[in-house]
């Protein structure tokens, strides 16, 4: 059932909203005429300035993780041929991974397991079937088009993984270059 703008329920809700707006000290100040605001501002002088300044909170970033290096097809191709140099992480869902993936890649789905790299070693191995990478392992993240891989790479940084690469061309770029891809 659609409510008509002139229905009693809509009028009552509008009145309550307007009443609450005018009873709020911050909004009452906003609705005062400009001349009245200017005069009251002159009377209170510096006191008003300090009160306004105290209304804002200051935040600082304790530590900011640097963005991962973006890599292209050629670099990922070379890394896929030497699996000991880096761990290639496919962050797509298992059904996507099964349809085709980069050779020697492991599947750690970002959407269903975003905190996987934060799991204890035993839980990680039990969940994914291979040992959890150490924090000094170079990880290359990819997905379908680079969105999930960027998010997964940033999240890995919060878990202490400093050697991160992001293949933003991801699976779409790989499939355009490769005729044959492993399937599970």
UniProtKB/TrEMBL annotation:
Record-annotated Rhodanese domain positions: 82-179
UniProt cross-references to SUPFAM superfamilies, sorted A to Z: Rhodanese/Cell cycle control phosphatase
GO terms of molecular function: thiosulfate-cyanide sulfurtransferase activity
GO cellular component: mitochondrion
Database matches in InterPro entries: Rhodanese-like_dom, Rhodanese-like_dom_sf
Protein name, UniProt field: Rhodanese domain-containing protein
Organism: Kuraishia capsulata CBS 1993
